[in-house]
TrEMBL record:
It comes from Haloplanus vescus. Its main location: membrane. InterPro entries: Preflagellin_Peptidase, Prepilin_IV_endopep_pep. This is Preflagellin peptidase FlaK. The chain crosses the membrane at residues 34-52, 64-83, 95-111, 123-144, 299-321. The keyword Repeat does not apply. It is found in: Cell membrane. One of its GO terms (cellular component) is plasma membrane.
Length: 327
């Protein structure tokens, strides 16, 4: 495989994003330092390529700077805006911003018989190709979930957006509950917030399920502990435990489960959790053996796959539209 030196340097983003996708799936945590070397490569390669197009003497030179402008002035504000409004996580937004700097134009990778990518858009902004590829790949995930749930016999209105999980496995799962005591919700308890709560009061999910009535009494909270950020901790994982004590959910307390005290104590937001959301979630995990859980797949996974597809095949959307005769 042959390519310009700058394009070869840009390929370092592939293993870096692959590692980021793997780590984000396992831990939902990415170190900020990951983006600094990639951004530095983006700046250096962009300056080198820009120098090769100066002075602007032809159409190709002007197109290069137009594409760079679109990548930097459209995709970076778009990623930031989606993060600001809650559509993206911080790592997802940083990944897209970094790719906008690294890949403003299409790289060219020469093989012995052909050149990659195979399908390029008329606009020629590769970072936008990665984004549209990621969106299309992300849209295919609900079909996978639906097929997976159908094969397992988990048929529900949620089968295309969630998966049924054992409650005792929640200590090392990621995502958000799709259930409340009364039914289904899109805004159930975040599992990171659940882990924060358990660590704050120095208990485990197994203990909570074994004696929910005692834990529901706010007076049972004596000494509190560092809630951490809710990241999965292998040492905090517990085994199975059954709820052999029926909780008295009719008992009157000013602050059931000490939910309000917990949120006041941490002086911040536990991933947008309200006292009522926490109470509903605790009631669910202490009374049921399985729950519907959002898959919680970070967007950086389809971004990584979109980059790999973009570097090999090219633009999925443009290829589809061209096959349909629409472009």
């Amino acid at each position: 495989m042959l390519a310009a030196t700058t394009d070869l340097l840009r390929l370092l983003a592939v293993p870096a994003l692959g590692w980021a996708a793997w780590r984000d799936v396992r831990t939902r945590r990415l170190p900020n330092w990951l983006w600094y070397p990639l951004a530095a490569i983006g700046v250096v390669t962009l300056l080198v390529d820009a120098g090769a197009h100066l002075p602007m003497t032809g159409v190709a030179d002007r197109l290069f700077f137009v594409r760079v402008g679109v990548s930097l002035l459209v995709l970076i504000p778009l990623a930031y805006g989606l993060w600001w409004f809650g559509g993206f996580g911080g790592a997802d937004a940083k990944a897209l911003m970094t790719l906008a700097l690294l890949f403003p134009t299409y790289p060219v990778l020469y093989l012995s018989t052909d050149a990659l990518p195979l399908v390029a858009t008329t606009l020629g902004v590769f970072s936008l190709t990665v984004l549209t590829n990621a969106v299309l790949i992300g849209l295919a995930y609900p079909l996978y979930l639906g097929a997976r749930n159908a094969l397992r016999g988990d048929r529900s209105l949620l089968m295309f957006v969630g998966r049924r999980t054992s409650v005792t496995a929640l200590t090392h799962e990621h995502g958000r509950l799709f259930e409340t005591p009364e039914g289904f919700t899109r805004h159930g308890l975040d599992l990171d917030a659940l882990r924060m709560y358990l660590r704050w009061r120095g208990t485990t999910l197994a203990d909570l399920r074994e004696s929910p009535a005692a834990h529901r009494d706010p007076a049972s909270v004596d000494e509190t502990h560092d809630p951490t950020d809710g990241a999965v901790d292998a040492e905090a994982t517990v085994g199975d435990a059954s709820a052999d004590t029926a909780p008295d959910f009719d008992a009157e307390y000013d602050d059931p489960w000490a939910a309000e005290r917990f949120l006041d104590d941490i002086e911040g937001s536990a991933y947008g959790t309200s006292p009522e959301t926490l109470r509903e979630g605790l009631r669910v995990v202490t009374t049921r053996d399985t729950v519907w859980l959002s898959p919680g797949i970070p967007f950086i996974v389809p971004v990584f796959l979109g980059l790999v597809v973009g570097l090999t095949y090219g633009d999925l959307l443009f290829g589809l539209l061209r096959a349909l005769g629409l472009v």
